[in-house]
């Protein structure tokens, strides 16, 4: 599901608490399954490296019903060796949502997403989010809400905007900006920053039946803000992916 992939990578990508009003009342019809796999030079989530600035392998499966309801799972290798207690090597995400067109050129998407880090000591890395987004032509705005964000950092809100500019037949230039609002009484950020902005610009294309992306990714954070690492420094990320 594309919105979840955006949340996790660029997606991040994500999004606001919304009510699935009326969605579950629709009779579930036959749907289709899809899969995706990717190799990226640095797994950046909301601007911060999740793989210690190293290569990450990612992939997932989705099942979409004809009425707009979907569910799926997505995973990635991770590396948080510089953060005490977060020493697992795998992230697994599980989600369910509902999306539909609301006009000729607009669409909405809402859902629930659970982040699981099975190799961590304890479960303080695990958290859940409610998300929602609205797309109009090539522009998307969205929000996400967590009642207890990563590292048990309490309430979290994420607001973002994306714009995709087509460049000829096979290329696109994708812009993203997101605002991360953490609870002021907690934070995985080492100097207790309670907000920051992440951004990216990506050039994407399809060639030889594979998707290619070269992105410039950054944040407003300093090294001291993230465990005295450069995980949040501006960088270039190369990704190759395949959807099936």
From TrEMBL:
Q: Which UniProt keywords apply?
A: Signal
> Signal sequence span per UniProt?
1-30
Q: What is this protein called?
A: TIGR02001 family outer membrane protein
Q: Which organism is it from?
A: Halioglobus maricola
The taxonomy runs: Bacteria, Pseudomonadati, Pseudomonadota, Gammaproteobacteria, Cellvibrionales
């Amino acid at each position: 599901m594309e919105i979840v992939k955006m949340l996790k990578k660029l997606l991040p990508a994500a999004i606001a608490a919304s009510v699935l009003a009326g969605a579950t009342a629709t009779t579930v019809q036959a749907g289709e399954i899809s899969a995706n796999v990717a190799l990226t030079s640095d797994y950046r989530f909301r601007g911060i490296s999740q793989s210690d600035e190293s290569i990450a392998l990612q992939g997932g499966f989705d099942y979409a019903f004809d009425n707009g309801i979907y569910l799926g799972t997505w995973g990635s290798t991770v590396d948080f060796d510089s953060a005490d207690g977060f020493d697992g090597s795998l992230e697994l995400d599980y989600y369910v949502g509902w999306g539909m067109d609301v006009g000729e050129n607009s669409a909405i998407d809402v859902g629930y997403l659970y982040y699981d880090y099975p190799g961590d000591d304890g479960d303080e890395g695990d958290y859940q989010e409610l998300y929602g987004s609205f797309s109009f032509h090539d522009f998307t705005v969205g929000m996400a809400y967590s009642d207890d964000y990563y590292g048990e950092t309490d309430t979290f809100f994420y607001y973002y905007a994306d714009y995709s500019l087509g460049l000829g037949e096979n290329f696109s230039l994708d812009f993203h900006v997101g605002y991360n609002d953490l609870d002021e009484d907690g934070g995985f950020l080492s100097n207790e920053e309670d907000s920051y902005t992440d951004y990216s610009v990506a050039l994407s294309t399809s060639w030889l039946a594979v998707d290619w992306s070269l992105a410039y990714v950054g944040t407003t954070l300093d090294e001291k803000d993230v465990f005295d690492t450069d995980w949040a420094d501006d960088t270039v990320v190369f990704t190759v992916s395949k959807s099936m």
